[in-house]
Amino acid sequence: MVLARPAHPPARSLAEIAAHLELPAHDGGPIVTGLTLASGRAEPGDLFAALPGARSHGAVWAGEALARGACAVLTDQAGADLIAGQAPCLITPDPRAVLGELAAWFYGDPAADLDVFGVTGTSGKTTVASLVHAAMSKAWGIAGFLGTTGMRIGETSLPQERTTLEAPDLHAALALMRERGVRGVALEISSHALALHRVDGLRVDVAAFTNLMRDHLDFHADEEDYFGAKTRLFSPERARVGLIAADSPWGRRLAEEATIPVTTIGRGDHNEWRIEPRGVVVDANTTAYGFALSGPDRILEGRTCLVGAFNQDNAALALLTCVQLGIDPETASRAIAEVRSLPGRMEPVAAAHTPAPLAIVDFAHTPGQVQAVLAAIRPATSGRVLLVIGAGGDRDQGKRPAMGAVAAAGADVTFVTDDNPRSEDPAAIRADILAGARGSAHVREVAGRGEAIRRAVESAKVGDTIIVAGKGHETDQEAQGERRPWDDRVELAAALEECGPWA
């Protein structure tokens, strides 16, 4: 990961930081020019946040941070005891809980100088944020993006480790964007980020909720806990106003429980803004899907090239977000319509030989997401739908049988294979998925993701659709503590090349 920090960082004494945190006064102390909680990425002048963890204390890595130039440590008493005088320490009972607000203050509250959009939900975050970013770029020239597919500052792209950065990196990135003349930022906000204080100190101008499906129950105790984390975004300290997709029970409940002004959007009559499909629009060899947004006082027209009813909903949510941010609706609508595809989101993979089966890579990795992708592609498929699917190891095991069930019900042929096994036995993961697909004669178990992709392509004919689900934009595969290069799009293209041409 490349650090994104302002070229002209602030310089604050440790005494100033202690005073801001209302901690016992320090006599001057070193000058701090950055914040980090990653010891391996510490830079000279950093304040290293040594946080207590589930397995070990971050203070055990303080030596590495100090060797890299960190000049002081923020930690709790247990961490200070471990550091034992190696560096000046600021001691607070819960360092993680103060880190976000500290980072915002340290970098001069950069979000206050930007128009910030934050979106949360199980699926659709990347799509909605990307569409809003496209509209911001068209309307304002330079825009920022922070999410699952990386970081963008104008024309510059940088990789990210997670959907939402840790608080020091988040506020540093926002400060860099401000420094580079960015006006608006589209930000994905995960439930982990909300639960772990990663977005503390940030108040977005518009917050949006897409949906909630079963996911991340290896981290959250249950769906109620998962929902509770999402609701934190819709509070006065984190957002000014909210937009809520309220066709689902979770969305309707959030609209009732949010403590900020919210507007509802969806296809149901109960929504303040209703999404109405307008059919297929073919223009200059481009197929788009039209929709209208009917609101209290006007109608907004839009279209998207992204396939599926759920992507019409995503595009409509993005369009209404832009209106809330003050972007001209026609400018926003054009920008959204110009987005042809997104990395790993219903992303078509072209075959070298034509005609050929339609081939798509998608990030779907929950039962609800897989079901939605299958439903979206069925109307566009004259032949069969062939699905390649796996599940990640060391994650929510309970969703695996449900993924197998929806795959068997929605696809004509399903190839159950490996995703990111991590520390688990790949065969055991496949068995969990297959347990939900019992009784289907059209489910195949194939060890090795590359082999499964090749088998699916070999089985396909012109008119069929091949969907490779689960990894989307990812460019590596993790197994037994090792990461190796892997890209579903590359593997699928190679298989199409190998197996074509089709008659």
Strand content range: 15-25%
Please tell me how large the radius of gyration is.
24 Å
- What coarse outline follows from CA principal-axis ratios? globular
Strand order of the largest sheet: 10-9-8-11-7-12-13-14-15-16-17
Number of helices: 16
Mean pLDDT: 94
Give the termini distance in whole angstroms: 45 Å
Helix content: 25-40%
Number of strands: 25
Query: What summary fits the major beta sheet?
Result: 11 strands, mixed
Which structural class should the secondary elements be placed in?
alpha/beta
Low-confidence stretches: none
Q: What layout of secondary structure does this protein have?
A:
Elements: E1 12-13, H1 14-20, E2 31-32, E3 34-36, E4 46-49, H2 62-67, E5 72-75, H3 77-83, E6 89-91, H4 95-106, E7 115-120, H5 125-140, E8 143-147, E9 150-153, E10 156-158, H6 167-179, E11 184-188, H7 191-195, E12 204-209, H8 223-231, E13 239-245, H9 249-257, E14 262-266, E15 273-283, E16 286-294, E17 299-304, H10 309-324, H11 329-337, E18 347-348, E19 358-362, H12 367-377, E20 385-389, H13 399-410, E21 413-416, H14 426-435, E22 443-445, H15 449-459, E23 465-469, E24 476-479, E25 482-485, H16 488-499
Parallel strand pairs: 3-4, 4-5, 5-6, 7-11, 7-12, 8-11, 12-13, 13-14, 14-15, 19-23, 20-21, 20-23, 21-22
Antiparallel strand pairs: 1-2, 8-9, 9-10, 15-16, 16-17, 18-19, 24-25
